[in-house]
Amino acid sequence: MIEAKDIKRTFLMGKVEVQALKGVSLNIEKGEFIAIVGPSGSGKTTMLNQLGILDTPTSGEIIIDSTNISELTDREKIRFRLNNLGYVFQDYALIPTLTGLENVYLPLMMQGHPQKELEEKATNILEAVSLADRMHHLPSEMSGGQQQRVSIARALVHEPKILFADEPCANLDSTASRQVLELFSNFNKKNQQTIVMVTHEEWHLDYVDRVITLKDGLLAD
Ligand code: ATP
């Protein structure tokens, strides 16, 4: 489903080159729940951003379901992301002036679905993350765990092929973290949802099918 071939990513810091990824190749199959782990600065977020088409590699190729991403125009990449991928970030990235429901139906709105369908689908997914009673509240009226569950609902409402999550539990206590991981695990098992998650917590690995370890910009043995 995802094939990464010899991915390199170099950043320029003034005149200094930082080689965040030095040639990473990997395959992820449909339905896998993957954790990317490694020490701070090993390239986890940079790799997730390449796989999730949020950044462009300096060299190498990402192929998702037979689409070679390097052959897409910027406009086609935006469309590809909108139709195929979902994202969860550690700071939730909700729009503060919109209610939970409105935040969740944004991806569907951008795809041009009618209002009735937006509300129906967003309500269903908010029920699935046990937030039906909070859907008309603003993010500022919710706990961190509730906000993260809204962001998971938003990431999944358009039924993306792949869900990318960058340290989704970084700002949550252990109870809220467990709820998030159990949600991921349920979507993964019930819907064959492919999930790629960056984490640095050992106990999170109990929930995943496979661990990919990075070290200094390369796959660790
Ligand atoms: P952490 O666990 O601390 O979040 P990480 O494993 O996710 O770290 P990355 O954020 O991918 O690591 O960073 C890998 C390397 O690339 C680091 O040396 C970092 O400083 C560098 N880097 C990442 N993004 C940029 C950028 N936009 N500009 C310059 N250097 C960057």
UniProtKB/TrEMBL annotation:
GO terms under cellular component: membrane protein complex
Keyword vocabulary terms for this entry: ATP-binding, Nucleotide-binding, Transport
SMART domains associated with the record: AAA
Nucleotide-binding found in the keyword field: yes
Stored InterPro entries: AAA+_ATPase, ABC_transporter-like_ATP-bd, ABC_transporter-like_CS, MacB-like_ATP-bd, P-loop_NTPase
One Gene Ontology molecular-function label: ATP hydrolysis activity
SUPFAM superfamilies linked to this entry: P-loop containing nucleoside triphosphate hydrolases
Domain annotation ABC transporter: ranges: 2-220
Listed PANTHER family: CELL DIVISION ATP-BINDING PROTEIN FTSE (PTHR42798:SF6), LIPOPROTEIN-RELEASING SYSTEM ATP-BINDING PROTEIN LOLD (PTHR42798)
Family to which this protein belongs: Belongs to the ABC transporter superfamily.
Protein's name in the database: ABC transporter ATP-binding protein
Organism: Methanolobus sediminis
Native organism taxonomy: Archaea, Methanobacteriati, Methanobacteriota, Stenosarchaea group, Methanomicrobia
